[in-house]
């Protein structure tokens, strides 16, 4: 796993990237938009991967609970925003996500994954990992999981 620039107790690396929003629209977002909020920022390897849908759907299903705690949930992978949208538009029964209540960020240049220390450089994908941000400061890191396994 890459070391990255994200360190607990230090400002979280800012990013600007295209995300698929809950309404299915594309929007350029940056971490600075969430200043003053908590952010659960999770990474996953690839869209349409075997393990990923269950955990992403679980985050989405609880988005309202996070919102009540002034917390935004953001997912990211190295796939394009077009691929994210295709996965969202694919029914769950066919390996898709279905409608999402969270933002899915596209990181095709792998800079966000690199900055947050979750890039599996030899494969060009990110590990499954979570970062907890409080008011733009990294306060928690949950390490990358071995790729066939998931978070719980």
From TrEMBL:
Known EC number: 1.11.1.24
Oxidoreductase recorded as keyword: yes
Keywords per UniProt: Disulfide bond, Oxidoreductase, Redox-active center
GO MF annotations in UniProt: thioredoxin peroxidase activity
Domain Thioredoxin, residue spans: 6-141
Active-site residues from the entry: 52
Catalytic activity: a hydroperoxide + [thioredoxin]-dithiol = an alcohol + [thioredoxin]-disulfide + H2O
Pfam families linked: AhpC-TSA (PF00578)
Matches recorded under PANTHER family: PEROXIREDOXIN-1, THIOREDOXIN PEROXIDASE
Oligomer status and interactors: Homodimer; disulfide-linked, upon oxidation. 5 homodimers assemble to form a ring-like decamer. Interacts with GDPD5; forms a mixed-disulfide with GDPD5. Interacts with SESN1 and SESN2. Interacts with FAM107A.
Function: Thiol-specific peroxidase that catalyzes the reduction of hydrogen peroxide and organic hydroperoxides to water and alcohols, respectively. Plays a role in cell protection against oxidative stress by detoxifying peroxides and as sensor of hydrogen peroxide-mediated signaling events. Might participate in the signaling cascades of growth factors and tumor necrosis factor-alpha by regulating the intracellular concentrations of H(2)O(2). Reduces an intramolecular disulfide bond in GDPD5 that gates the ability to GDPD5 to drive postmitotic motor neuron differentiation.
Name of the protein described by the UniProt record: Peroxiredoxin-1
Organism from which the protein derives: Peromyscus maniculatus bairdii (Prairie deer mouse)
């Amino acid at each position: 796993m890459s070391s990255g620039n994200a360190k607990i107790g230090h400002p979280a690396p800012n990013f600007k990237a295209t995300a698929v929003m809950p309404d299915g629209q594309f929007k350029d977002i940056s971490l600075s938009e969430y200043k003053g909020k908590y952010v659960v920022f999770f990474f996953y390897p690839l869209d349409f991967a075997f393990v990923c849908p269950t955990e992403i759907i679980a985050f989405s299903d609880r988005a309202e609970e996070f919102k009540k705690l002034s917390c935004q949930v953001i997912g990211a992978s190295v796939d394009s925003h077009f691929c994210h949208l295709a996965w969202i538009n694919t029914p769950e029964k066919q390996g898709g996500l279905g409608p999402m209540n969270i933002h899915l960020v596209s990181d095709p240049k792998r800079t966000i994954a690199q900055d947050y220390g979750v890039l599996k450089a030899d494969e060009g994908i990110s590990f499954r990992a979570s970062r907890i941000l409080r008011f733009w400061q990294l306060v928690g890191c949950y390490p990358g999981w071995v790729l066939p396994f998931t978070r719980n």
